[in-house]
Design a protein that fits this description.
The protein has 97 residues and is α+β, with helices and mostly antiparallel strands. The chain folds into 2 domains: 1-59, no CATH class; 60-97, no CATH class. Helices cover 34% and strands 14% of the residues. The chain contains 4 helices and 2 strands. The protein has helices at 3-6, 32-45, 47-54, 69-75; strands at residues 81-87, 90-96. A two-stranded antiparallel sheet has the order 1-2. The radius of gyration is 22 Å and the shape is elongated. It starts with a helix and ends with a strand.
Length: 97
């Protein structure tokens, strides 16, 4: 994933993945036919492959995060826009000045 696109720093750069590869490493004493059969099971049982290949409903929500009054007073004169992104319990604040 290209970070400049993800953060919106370069509008011409895509915000998502350019390509996703699935590699199956199979260690088994099997015939070529059995190997192909095993390999075909990977995509069929992969939740990530299924979600991307067949699509899933996506819901987006926003949550306002209050700043402490001391932080607000300190940031207000120098910050025009603040973008918050929350993922996995981590909050990312991107500030434009």
């Amino acid at each position: 994933m290209e970070l400049r696109g993800f953060l919106g720093l370069a509008p011409v750069v895509r915000k998502g993945y350019q390509q996703i590869r699935l590699t199956l490493r199979i260690k088994a004493a099997v015939t070529d036919r059995e190997f192909q059969e095993l390999a075909s099971l990977g995509p069929n049982f992969s939740p990530v492959f299924g979600s991307i290949n067949k699509g899933v409903q996506i819901s987006v929500s926003s949550e306002r995060i209050a700043l402490a009054s001391a932080q607000t007073a300190m940031l207000a004169p120098q910050v025009r826009n603040t973008i918050y992104s929350r993922s996995g319990g981590v909050t990312l604040a991107i500030q434009e000045s």
